[in-house]
Amino acid sequence: MVEFLQFTLSGLSFGMIYAAIALSLVLIWRGTRLLNFAQGGMAMFTTYIALEVIRHTGSYWAGFAVALAAGVVLGAAAELAVIRPALGKPELNAVIITIGLLILLEGLAGIFYGGQYRSFPAAFSIIGLKAGSTPLGVSRFDVFVALAVLAATLLLAIGFRYTSAGLRMRAAAFNATVARLSGIRVARVITVGWALAGLLGALAGVLVTPSTFLYPNSMDSIFVFGFTAAVIGGLDSPLGAVVGGLLLGVALSYAGGYLGSQGSDLTALVALGILVVVLMLRPDGIFSGARVRRV
Amino acid sequence: MNSPAAAQGGEGDDGATGAPEIPGAKAAVSLVIEDLVAGYGEVVALDKVTITAEAATITAVLGANGAGKTTLLRAISGMVRPRSGRVLLGGADRTGRSPEDMARAGIAHVPEGQGVIAELTVEENLRIGMMSWPGIAPRRADRAAALSEAYERFSVLADRRRKLAATLSGGERQMLVIARALVARPRVLLLDEPSLGLAPRIMTQVMDMVVRLSRENSITIVLVEQNARSALAIADRGVVLNLGRVVATADARTLATDVALRHHYLGF
Question: CB-based contact (8 Å) between B16 and chain A?
Answer without folding.
Answer: no
